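Data deposition worksheet. Section B asks for the primary sequence of the deposited chain exactly as it was used as input, without tags or linkers unless they were present during the calculation. Section C holds the resulting structure in token form. Section D is free text for depositor observations; keep each observation to a single sentence. Incomplete worksheets are returned to the depositor.
Section A, Depositor: J.P.
Section B:
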Amino acid sequence: MKYVKLVPVVLASLLTTLILPVTHANAANSAIAEVNYPYVAALARASILADQPAVPTTLKITYQFEAGVPIENQNIIKEGADNFVSHFGNIMNYSSAPLGIIVYSTLAGGLALAKAFDPSDASFQADMVNTFANQPDPAKVPTLDISGFSVGYKRLVILEAPFFQTPNPALGSYLGGPVTASHELAHEVQASINKGKNMRNPVWLCEGGAQVIGAVMSVYQGKDYWAINGRDAWSDRIPANRSVTDLKAMEGETGSLSVSDQRYSEYSTGAALSEYLIAKGGFTNSLLVNQLSFKSGGGMLAFRTAFQTVYGESLDDFYAEAVPYINYVSANWRLTPATSPDALSFISDRLAIYKAAADAIAAADAKAAADRAAADAKAAADAKAAAVKKIVSITCVKGKLIKKVTSIKPLCPSGFKKK
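Section C:
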């Protein structure tokens, strides 16, 4: 097994107030060999689960369901959200405010619930009016799909889930809801690392990353949904022969594209690109690069600088490296279990590299903190000693009266003379 070269990067001066449990990064700097492409998806998934294991959390969720939301959809969303928070509560719990989840069956009902979430915030009210105006109307176009959006600055996820079974019995029931709910919750993670601000540049990492996280975290009736309809929900929509130009086009918004053209967008091709990024450098670094970009003011220029810092290569070089993998996924979109000895060896070796880098970072941080504490203590002791050395005493007399004055600059009292 060939190990990738690790490039140490010191970021402590930039990350002193950030949420992520890292203060600088070591990123893998070698491309993943084509022979290992079949294992990249499993590696990305393993990296997310290794970085975010299920642990107890104090994060609370408040649910509001409009009358008419099927109980099946309510259960799907609750189960998925509870599972999601059990993994990401440590990041999402940056505020004491609970996470709000609103689920509606009609546009009017959804807007009413959203506006009631914070009736005192006029800008939020206007935002909800504008956003709901662009949502599909389930009364006019019945769909089995669950759709939604997140409002990071309010710690709020809003989902449309009017049907578990449409008026057309031939369409049956829909079990893709866990992926949609987890996708929107992933946006809350992206917002939480920047305390409520979701960075959308590049859009491929914002939406594509949420696609990957959503697929990994989706569950239904206690079963892992990753291999059922999780990843397949986007991997089968990637066109063949993607190019670096196509990847660059996803840095900005593509919301004006028609629904049929979304197969070319950040939700599919961008998801494969995000999957490769997570597999290449570990899940934490895929969040860290966005944090650094946010700290530098956001936008693509800031992101490119942050990417170079975290991964040790330019974003354009990464695009050129990742294109072959994206085209591989286009031709081999269906997930296959990565359970062969070669697959397990590749995944475990790569995870070990991430852990070794993280352990080295933690050790270096601990040593740096200890060194700073020792230096501060020495400086304080030296300053105290210097101050003591400057203190002098003089004797002052006035007739038969004698006074001793001790100070940095001692002076005799009025009427006294220095002896």
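Section D:
The chain has one domain: 6-338.
The CA atoms of residues 217 and 308 lie 29 Å apart.
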